[in-house]
Amino acid sequence: NSEQPNSRWYSGCGIYRNVWLTSVDPVYVDLWGVYVTTPEITEDNAVVNVKTTVKNEMPQEVNVKTETSIVDGSGKQVASASVSGTLAAGSSKEIEQDLSVREPVLWTLENPCLYEVVTRIFVDDKQTDEYVTPLGIRYFTFDAQKGFFLNGESTKIKGVCLHHDLGCLGAAV
Q1: How far apart are CA 111 and CA 35, in angstroms?
Q2: How does pLDDT run across 122-143, given as a tens digit for each residue?
Q3: DSSP letter (8 states) at residue 12
Q4: Against a cut of 0.90, is the pTM above it?
Q5: What is the dihedral of CA 57, 60, 63, 64, to 10 degrees?
């Protein structure tokens, strides 16, 4: 926005937030490459579907193992799965795994229990990457007449529409 300076300065025009530089091995989990859903949740079991995009920037095909585990808040592993295969040079592949968490502790407003999905990539039995994704196991529904339900209980949504503005003059909401 330097060509047209004004008080409605575009906040994306500079660095206003944290910045990270990530260095990875040539065979790794792609940036934002883990997608986690919970398609089935009961009191006894939660099915956790994990889709992981693995990239190979090596000039040759590699033997890859994708190992995924779910760890509870105390650090205990509660589920795991692994898939092995080959990955062509300069390519990426989405790996899909279903894991079961027995007697899951559901995420609620009163008890925001988080699990971690830990994804490890191995090339010829050598670990090349580890990617951690937070997971709250919960389900929700919206009903036009009754409202929002979290884990089967009516829940009022409280919040604000936040708009960051006036970057060079400070910040206003």
Answers
A1: 23
A2: 999 999 999 999 999 999 999 9
A3: G
A4: no
A5: 10
